[in-house]
Amino acid sequence: MLFLLQDGITNGAIYALLGLALVLVFAVTRVILIPQGEFVTYGALSYAMLATGQVPGTARLAMAMGVVAFALDLFAARKSLRLRFVARAAAINILFPAVILALTYSLENLKLIADGAHPNGHHTPAVGVDPGTGHQPALLQSVDQSSDTRS
User: Fold this and answer.
1) Which DSSP symbol is given to 126?
2) What pLDDT score was predicted for residue 119?
3) What does DSSP assign to residue 118?
4) Residue 74: which residues within 8 A CB-CB, separation 6 or more?
């Protein structure tokens, strides 16, 4: 019963925020922002990929679009390039998405470590391995083998 209450509150909050975003955009621009649902979908799919321990494509897309935006900023200000402007544009357009991408990769590596694997591909011994012989009891071997076949 508590799960249903939590699920209802979560869904209600998402719909309320989506409605608030639509109202705010319409109040300022007098245009209905149709792609608003796509933003919510991208957010949900990015969260789902993060929850499974993978790097979402939106993190890579943000980095690529940051590089494009930086190039466009440099092109727009090509006649009066100043170091301060270039540093600010680089920080906003390249550094910020790079930090987000690095954080998502580090979360992926933390998920791998939490699941018992090292980021370089080596697996740690399963719980219950006899340190002297390196063998697992038969019950743990069958569990470990069934999890390897699902991957």
Assistant:
1) P
2) 53
3) -
4) 81, 86, 89
Quick: pLDDT tens for 25-39: 999 999 888 888 888
Q: What pTM, to 2 d.p., does this model score? A: 0.56
HEC per residue, 41-55 = HHHHHHHHHHHCCCC
Enumerate residue ranges in the chain where pLDDT < 70: 112-151
Query: Within 10 A of 126 (CB to CB), how many other CB atoms are there?
Result: 13
Q: Per DSSP, what are the bridge partners of residue 117?
A: 123
Position 50 scores a pLDDT of 82
DSSP 50-95: HHTT---HHHHHHHHHHHHHHHHHHHHTGGG--HHHHHHHHIIIII
Question: In this structure, are residues 99 and 66 in contact, taking their beta carbons and an 8 Å threshold?
Answer: no
Which letter does DSSP use for residue 130 in this model?
-
What is the residue whose two structure tokens read 């993190």?
A: 59
